[in-house]
Design goal:
Blueprint lengths: L1 H70 L5 H17 L1 H4 L4
Helix pairs in contact: 1-2
């Protein structure tokens, strides 16, 4: 009788601990998923900032080229160099529409 009661209590405590472990594991899984989503969001934002920085750099170069063409310190050969350096950004900024044709 005493042994049976101790075994029952022990079994009950083990079940209770197992349930608590299961709940904690679920909560950890939910938190881990939330962290992963947040990391993905931050990574996406960082990528957008990098693209914006690159576009800003390209735009500054275009502005510098236009100013140089205007004051004579830069020539038509600099347009090709700018196109080579910035490639995709050059195209997306529509530089060919901005820079006078030579």
């Amino acid at each position: 009788p005493l042994c049976a009661e101790l075994l029952y209590n022990l079994h009950y405590k083990i079940q209770q601990a197992t349930q608590e472990l299961s709940v904690a594991s679920y909560r950890r899984s939910v938190a881990s998923a939330a962290v992963t989503r947040e990391e993905e969001r931050v990574s996406s934002e960082a990528s957008c900032l990098g693209v914006n920085d690159r576009r800003a750099e390209a735009l500054q170069a275009v502005i510098g080229l236009l100013e140089g063409l205007r004051d004579g310190s830069r020539g038509p050969e600099d347009i090709g160099a700018l196109r080579s350096e910035f490639g995709e950004e050059y195209e997306s900024l529509g530089v060919d529409r901005i820079v006078p044709k030579f």
